[in-house]
Amino acid sequence: MHGVHDGKQIKVGVLGATGTVGQRFILLLAEHPYFVIHALGASSRSAGKQYAKAATWKQVKPIPSQVREMIVDECKPEHFSECAVVFSGLDADVAGDIETAFRAAELAVFSNAKNFRRDPNVPLIVPLVNTAHLSMIPQQQSLHEPPLKKGFIVTNANCSTTAVVIPLAALERAFGPLESCMITTMQAISGAGYPGLPSLDILDNVVPYISGEEEKIEWETLKILGGIATEDEGTKSFDMHSRHPLRVSASCNRVAVIEGHTETVSVRFARRPPPSPQQVREALQAFTSDAYSLGCPSAPRHTVFVHEEPDRPQPRLDRDFQQGAGVSVGRVRQCRVLDIKFVVMANNVAIGAATSSIINAEFAVVKGLIQA
Amino acid sequence: MHGVHDGKQIKVGVLGATGTVGQRFILLLAEHPYFVIHALGASSRSAGKQYAKAATWKQVKPIPSQVREMIVDECKPEHFSECAVVFSGLDADVAGDIETAFRAAELAVFSNAKNFRRDPNVPLIVPLVNTAHLSMIPQQQSLHEPPLKKGFIVTNANCSTTAVVIPLAALERAFGPLESCMITTMQAISGAGYPGLPSLDILDNVVPYISGEEEKIEWETLKILGGIATEDEGTKSFDMHSRHPLRVSASCNRVAVIEGHTETVSVRFARRPPPSPQQVREALQAFTSDAYSLGCPSAPRHTVFVHEEPDRPQPRLDRDFQQGAGVSVGRVRQCRVLDIKFVVMANNVAIGAATSSIINAEFAVVKGLIQA
Amino acid sequence: MHGVHDGKQIKVGVLGATGTVGQRFILLLAEHPYFVIHALGASSRSAGKQYAKAATWKQVKPIPSQVREMIVDECKPEHFSECAVVFSGLDADVAGDIETAFRAAELAVFSNAKNFRRDPNVPLIVPLVNTAHLSMIPQQQSLHEPPLKKGFIVTNANCSTTAVVIPLAALERAFGPLESCMITTMQAISGAGYPGLPSLDILDNVVPYISGEEEKIEWETLKILGGIATEDEGTKSFDMHSRHPLRVSASCNRVAVIEGHTETVSVRFARRPPPSPQQVREALQAFTSDAYSLGCPSAPRHTVFVHEEPDRPQPRLDRDFQQGAGVSVGRVRQCRVLDIKFVVMANNVAIGAATSSIINAEFAVVKGLIQA
Amino acid sequence: MHGVHDGKQIKVGVLGATGTVGQRFILLLAEHPYFVIHALGASSRSAGKQYAKAATWKQVKPIPSQVREMIVDECKPEHFSECAVVFSGLDADVAGDIETAFRAAELAVFSNAKNFRRDPNVPLIVPLVNTAHLSMIPQQQSLHEPPLKKGFIVTNANCSTTAVVIPLAALERAFGPLESCMITTMQAISGAGYPGLPSLDILDNVVPYISGEEEKIEWETLKILGGIATEDEGTKSFDMHSRHPLRVSASCNRVAVIEGHTETVSVRFARRPPPSPQQVREALQAFTSDAYSLGCPSAPRHTVFVHEEPDRPQPRLDRDFQQGAGVSVGRVRQCRVLDIKFVVMANNVAIGAATSSIINAEFAVVKGLIQA
User: Fold this and answer.
1) Which of B261, C56, C83, C249 would be a feasible disulfide site paired with C13, CB 3.0-4.6 Å?
2) Is the predicted pLDDT of residue C4 greater than 70, yes or no?
3) Which residues are in the Semialdehyde dehydrogenase NAD-binding domain (chains A, B, C, D) (predicted)?
4) Mutation test of the interface with chain C: which of D168, D197, D204, choosing the one with the most C Cβ atoms within 10 A?
């Protein structure tokens, strides 16, 4: 295994540990080469109980033995003071206050919640794309009242945004800026958490609407693919891809799939003539993330796996490839309206959620932002 | 009931009567006000048997009593000589030869097969859209060797094309020509016939590919929405929307739905500024087909039903509205890349298949093209 | 149509009108020949609103026009004083108190809730089986404090019980008492109401457990198939099949089916030798309910439809036969452990719920227990 | 890892290598500690092609690299002469002739096909249950014309039989013979192979019939749980449990599950009083297979995993436990008709198919029946 970590173990905590995303964090961290689960936070209803009693475990893999009997704490910073990293799988209705308090207590928070994604000082990072946005952290710390030394918040993107920005980033790196992008998603039910979508709504059905989802894709894509501008007085800001305006239009649908969001994507490049389908295939396949290059152990070798078969990717067959840490692309071909169209499939509960937070934290370790 | 038919019964035949589409024809014709099933054609394997023995009936409704004991014939014109109309639910691998023979025998053939859709003298008619294309029939007859008096072929469109051209036609009628259209389909398994799609391919899955489907949508849409040009020497031809070039791009997917194709659609109008979402909603809702206006009994009152709820249409809830003879539209809103986007859902086995053929024949009756 | 009702309309109310069962009551009553919806009851949250606004309508058929703008009331007897019949689709947590109050207010309550099923004075009636148990109503009224003249409660059975007791009743009528019965159910998700079962629990899955369901089948079957005993002092009691003890064992499972409970059933007869499979088929097919014979308009002509095909009944193909008011049986064959085994399928939201309550009320009308 | 194998690699072949079961054999053998894939056999249509070209790969895991470019042979013994073991995933229509030829060529054949299961000299072995039946092999060899030295055929059981005989064997070992057993199965679609079940037949549906399946369970259970009788002249025969007659009755159903057969089981013991549910739970949990005890590397540590949660086992959550090599039992409780009832779930494509063949071969290695 490549990687530059020195081998020391780093204590981490999980907020929202009994929920769907929290369970995923626990499964991934239980096998992590250097992150070690040290504290688990959940609601006051779960606090004080053994984890196996507190959680309604709904994963295919059993509860890792090292957390079965761990006592769940309330989500208060004092219970996590020994943690160098805190992962948050909290629901949006409580994530804002709790993550704010954890940051103020000088904890490094890597959150899957949406609350801070639009914060002008919080990086919104898809770890295979824009780890460079970690450079916003010093400003986030210095603008805090009082200024922070170690505490900060990093968020990852919405699961359906993550799927599409990875190939888009590969295309922009190879061929320059995109001008427009049309996306239709066919999203898995696990994206709605548990209990989430009633079975009566989705069996033998498509629901052509997911509240707030289209807005997330259309906005988050700009923040992630954009750069960081520095104004005269030295203040940094996310430029929302404004140097080359990018129009994104999304149509979001829920389908009867357990895991794996499938998305049809069409793009128009600024560059004329646009690249050919074959050039696009090669660029996607060649794309390598900094996270992988710099040795983040959870980063996949194939950031984008490009299928040649005409009927792939398919969520059931492709979602577990590389433990769901990369994305799968197929059907790269010309589009009669824009330039190029393709299909992308990403595991919404892996790279679309907990895996992203973990790679983000690994990258922060590499960059020296985490003190073990 | 409105309508101008004089009440006389018209004898009809069904080709491919034991197949999936044939079964649908039989269910619809069994309750038809004036079409009466007179002959059933199938392969030589089925010929000579009672229909209930020959068909593997896979419909929710029972076999209509009037056809249970009807003897199935081979698909030869002599067995259908008393039929004024022949509906074809034949598979593409045999439809070409058989339909050719039936036309040559002076039979009026209304086909759901794809074989003649691209024929320059055969109308490709979605009956809620372009019944005017029946005007090509005299030329089809006169160019035949020998010229025909009564025989002709009319085809209806592919199911996924049908769903989208209906609202597109409504938009063009209200706001003038479209410039481009992007479509992503989520198509039901019944579109693949029986046995069709293996269950292992679609349960907990999306298949982002349907062979030939995207090409059908992109090509058929132009023939259907286009007009008929008359050249100097009087020859007519389908103009493929060439007066106002229209670019159509489709991405086709199979999802775990039994009936009802759901499609996300984005369009750009030639007219600037484009209509607002509210204007589009009103135009769609107001759109009435000539088939309905002229009294075709199978034409739906609401050609396009526009939903106001944010999460409709849904195939399971909306596919049986009006016996599946119209389409349902919802989520009409602005598109950041083109002008307007919306969702359309159509019952692929009703208006997407047999119902279209039947309304086409009803319209031909109204126009005096059928001699009972 | 057969039937003895005099044609006068009878005003009815629906309790729990906005819920899943309530919506079914409304669909059925909207097309009823003499019951007319006069009042709708729901929680205080819905009270005062138009029905179309109060209900989250989840049915394939649209909201009937006559109730769209009807104002929903709270479930208090004074709002239903003009109703001759009240149908209850209330949840069990509130049904007890509300139905008690309605009965005390001299209203005839036909309930789908489980609360009074085990009450020694309340008939538990599957209308195709044991309408004779209505004879318990006078005792129910006379034992009430104060005695009642018109008010009473009749319940129908649990959906999975209903499916199996109908063929069991047919067998006992033809061949005398049963000794034992083993049942395994494969139940539809609609049996759990809405939102009911989370989609993550049932897609690509079987859940081999439904809380309380096996006990209901094992107990309710005895009450329904048993008779009414009269003790020396004239007191009547349900005899729980005690003259011929019947052992029932059920295993209940949830499967990914929207509507229609499928159950495998094996039975042992007291009579030796037991009837042959062919005799059983004939007896099932010949079984006619008193409800049908006496003209209840919602009672199906075929109480038990017996399939000859080896692979039927199937919920998707057979649940809508006769509007789901009868049951379908197939695969009648010998059992190596007990005597005879077969498969039964019943529509859990029709005869398994609202349809049963309505036929029960129709039968009570026939018997003069309802004063319009 | 426990185990007595000496570490030498053993060359194996796979017949029917391109089919569903063949693909499973390949995935398992690619990671096997001592079996090494040496030859692949398929139909003449595939012969001569690279495996990755010949197979329509439908597994979640990618094609193992060591077989991607391996050339597929026809299923003729001369191509497999270097193999010490041949695994057969052939379809029943060809398995008989091919396996006969391979045995005659002195090859050891471990077959998943049904053809020889009822052969009086061929062991039908569920490897966690009756490996002792390998003792029939010498007689199989000596009765062959000409007598064989190394060649033989061993079959494993039908997938739905396998699931139930494992707990039944545990019960008989602990509590003595069973008298009767009632089984209802809810079987996964993968049991029907590929393309197998049409999606239109199973989505939103249950099919209460699988051709020949009930007979297999009822017959195979007796052969597997029975012993081997030796007659006066020394001839051995399978006694079909005849010393303690056992009546088995099965009802088989197909449900919308991808992998994992769930079965409800009720049993009656000869012994009175019967064991309590708690005794049964303990006996099931304690049951250890000889295959595991003697070090077969693919044998699971937990032959029967007993769940305490009321709603387990579930196929989606439990089928991958121990790579699907054991079975999961839950809901052990009293039965009102027989003695004890429970639910068992087994992975039909693992222990229900290829995994069984492989453990059988491992056991034959341990017993010295295979010469590497």
Assistant:
1) C83
2) no
3) 11-137
4) D204
Give C171-229 as a DSSP string.
HHHHH--EEEEEEEEEE-GGGG-SS-SBHHHHTT--B---TTHHHHHHHHHHHHHS-EE
Cβ atoms of C332 and C281 within 8 Å: the answer is yes
Closest of A353, A1, A58, A42 to residue A195, by C-alpha: A58
Q: What is the pLDDT of residues D111-131, one digit of tens each?
A: 999 999 999 999 999 999 999
Report ipTM for this prediction.
0.96
Element (H, E) at B362: helix B355-366
With a cut of 50, list the residues of chain B below it in pLDDT.
Answer: 1-3
Which secondary-structure segment (H or E) carries B37? strand B35-42
D88-97 core/surface letters (b: 16 or more CB in 10 A; e: else): bbbbeebbee
- Closest CB to A204 among D59, D62, D203: D203
Q: For residues D322 and B257, what is the distance between their CA atoms, to the nearest angstrom? A: 33
What is residue D372's predicted lDDT score, i.e. its pLDDT?
A: 67
Beta-carbon neighbour count of residue C323 at 10 Å?
15
Q: Where residue A3 falls among pLDDT bands split at 50, 70, 90?
A: very low
Of D60, D203, D317, which has the smallest distance from its Cβ to A60's Cβ? D317
**Neighbour tally for A43: CB within 10 Å:** 16
- Amino acid identity of C212? G
E strand or H helix at C86: strand C85-88
Check if D335 is active-site.
no
Q: Do D249 and C207 touch (CB under 8 A)?
A: no
How far lies C139's CA from each of C134, C147, C302, in Å? 10, 9, 33
Helix spans in chain A (H)? 20-30, 51-54, 65-68, 92-104, 137-143, 159-175, 199-202, 213-225, 277-286, 290-293, 315-318, 355-366
How many secondary structure helices (H) and strands (E) does chain B include? 12, 14
Six token digits for residue B231: 């050249």
Q: Answer yes or no: are the C-beta atoms of D262 and D186 closer than 8 Å.
A: yes
Q: With contact defined as beta carbons under 8 Å apart, do A346 and A257 qualify?
A: no
Spell out the long-range contacts of D138-144 with Cβ–Cβ below 8 A and sequence spacing 24 or more: D139/D235, D139/D236, D144/D103, D144/D104
pLDDT tops 50 at residue D1: no
- CB–CB of B204 and A257 under 8 A? yes
pLDDT, position C291: 98
Q: What is the pLDDT of residue B5?
A: 65
Selection from A268, A298, A301, A277 nearest residue A366 by Cα:
A298
Name all domains of chain A by residue range, CATH numbers in brackets. Answer: 10-158+354-366 (3.40.50.720), 159-347 (3.30.360.10)
With a CB-CB cutoff of 8 Å, which residues 201-260 of chain A face chain D?
203-204, 258
Give the HSE-up count for residue C126: Cα atoms under 13 Å, Cβ half-sphere.
Answer: 34
Burial class for B232, CB neighbours closer than 10 Å (0-12, 13-18, 19+): exposed
For residue D315, the chain A residue with the least C-alpha distance is A60
Instruction: Give the minimum alpha-carbon distance from B313 to chain A in angstroms, rounded to a whole number.
Output: 7
| Mean pLDDT confidence for A160-174 | 98
Within 8 A of B53 by CB-CB distance, chain C residues are none
> Confidence band (pLDDT; 50, 70, 90) for D2?
very low
**C-alpha span between B280 and B333 (Å, rounded):** 9
Flag if D199 and B256 touch (Cβ within 8 Å): yes
Q: Do C249 and D186 touch (CB under 8 A)?
A: no
Partner-chain contact D199 B202, CB within 8 Å: yes
Work out the angle at residue A257's Cα, subtended by the Cα atoms of residues A253 and A260, and round it to the nearest 5 degrees. 85
Q: What residues in C contact B58, CB-CB < 8 Å?
A: 317
Residues of A318-338 as b/e, b for ≥16 C-beta within 10 angstroms?
A: bbebbebbbbbbbbbbebbbb
User: Chain D residues with CB inside 8 Å of A58's CB?
Assistant: 317
Q: Which of B38, B79, B133, B261 is catalytic?
A: B261
- The structure tokens listed for D67 are 């077989």
CB atoms B337 and A182 under 8 Å: yes
